[in-house]
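[stage:ingest] chain + small molecule (protoporphyrin IX containing FE)
[stage:ingest] validated
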Amino acid sequence: MDKKYIIIALSYALVGLILGSVMAATKNHGQMVTHAHIMLLGFVTTFSYGLCYKLWITNSSTKVAKSQFVLHQLGTILMLSGLYMMYGNLIENHKIEALMGISSVAVILGLILMIYQLIQTNRDNQ
Ligand code: HEM
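[stage:predict] done
[stage:export] tokens:
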């Protein structure tokens, strides 16, 4: 699970840096919010989850770990796609509000499950 998270995180870094470079080269910063979220939610947050699995969560084959992975990955990809469409004026905002809401809840639930697993791991080691 840790390596999978790190590979996905670095892939987001690649996409985010390419988008940032395109923004800089074209002097069109319209996708700044998307770039910032790809870098911070896609790259930094996903990377930190990879480290959590590597350093503390010993059993990543549990249902909780699998749900955490699905929620974070699905939430993140939906949110980033939604932001890209919104800030690229590819879709009207009201048509994408539900998707943004669902993706936010998925990302938050993914975080809650990560906190839960870390607390559980501490308890298991005591
Ligand atoms: C190749 C490297 C990068 C390039 C070319 C790049 C490019 C840009 C550009 C052009 C902007 C818009 C600035 C503006 O309009 O004020 C921006 C904003 C931003 N970037 Fe990057 N970026 C890079 C790397 C990163 C990294 C590594 C992170 C974080 C891990 C990051 C996070 C952000 C954030 C949070 C903003 C929004 C800043 C604000 O609200 O003013 N960027 N970037």
